[in-house]
Design a protein that fits this description.
Layout (H helix, E strand, L loop, with lengths): L5 E9 L6 E9 L4 E5 L6 H7 L8 E6 L2 E2 L5 H7 E4 L12 H11 L4 H14 L15 H13 L5 E5 L7 H13 L3 E5 L3 H7 L2 E6 L2 E7 H5 L2 H6 L25
Parallel strand pairs: 3-8, 3-9, 6-7, 7-8
Antiparallel strand pairs: 1-2, 1-4, 4-5, 9-10
Helix pairs in contact: 3-4, 3-5, 4-5
Length: 257
């Protein structure tokens, strides 16, 4: 499945007794693309991501990973290929130790215990959390939990990596390490984020959600330079694209003295 597309076709979902959800969402993401999913709080980003791994089932429309529609029948095959990092790491960490948590996925994929442990240790090393192997997850900081949650997914070697606010609770150094790590992941990435500077670093394509609908889908820099679109979507340009608050100059045009 590593070379298959992620596709949504007129996807609709509403939460009970509310108008919140997503409405007529359609897109196609090809193998190897890195796509940012942006929008203000409540725009539908997390709801959409939860459909891409079958955690939610649509009211209408469809989602597919390659030739597999995401249905109850195909969930096992889909989840072997699609790894998801949740917005709240506590939703992913539930075992007695960090190593147990990161081993959980590979063991459930059928790896032998020694192979699962090796995969877990390698994943923890990649995210800079190898020193946490024996710690209980509840004693980790927010940033440490985020790194371990990412390791639980990387340990399963997914072909498609889906991340919900991956840079939240990370200090600047950990954030930079995360960006470098994601740059090294050569398969498909779908990243929902408020960190638009990270989106510029990682994603050539951006999808904008507003009130549950896609309002733009295109080149990241083109979208972030569209002042009208950004304002209407409740978004603010990445810091690197904002003018200097002191001199009023565009940082990309300012000349060195």
């Amino acid at each position: 499945m590593s070379h298959h597309i992620v596709k949504a076709d007129t996807l609709c979902y509403s939460y009970p007794a509310t108008d919140c959800g997503i409405h007529n969402i359609s897109f196609s993401i090809t193998h190897g693309e890195s796509v940012a999913l942006v929008g203000e709080n409540g725009a539908g980003k997390s709801t959409l991501l939860h459909h891409l791994n079958g955690f939610l089932q649509p009211d209408s429309g469809s989602v597919s990973i390659g030739d597999y529609p995401i249905t109850q029948k195909n969930l096992k095959a889909v989840r072997r290929s699609v790894g998801m990092v949740f917005q709240d790491p506590d939703d992913q960490l539930f075992m007695p130790t960090v190593l147990d948590d990161v081993c959980f996925g590979p063991l459930n994929l059928g790896l032998a215990p020694d192979s699962a442990k090796n995969a877990a240790l390698h994943a923890l090393e990649r995210v800079g959390a190898a020193h946490l192997v024996d710690r209980p997850p509840y004693r980790l900081s927010g940033g440490e939990k985020r790194s371990v949650a990412i390791a639980t997914v990387l340990a399963m070697s997914p072909d498609v990596l889906i991340m919900d606010e991956p840079s939240s609770n990370l200090d600047p150094r950990a954030r930079q390490r995360l960006i470098k790590l994601l740059m090294s992941f050569k398969h498909t990435k779908i990243i929902a984020t408020h960190d638009l500077d990270m989106a510029v670093d990682l994603c050539e394509r951006t999808i904008v959600l507003h009130k549950g609908k896609i309002t733009a889908d295109g080149a990241t820099l083109d979208i972030f330079q569209n002042d009208t679109l950004m304002n209407e979507s409740g978004l603010i340009k990445p810091l690197r694209m904002q003018g200097c608050s002191i001199c009023g100059q565009d940082p990309e045009r300012a000349e060195s003295p």
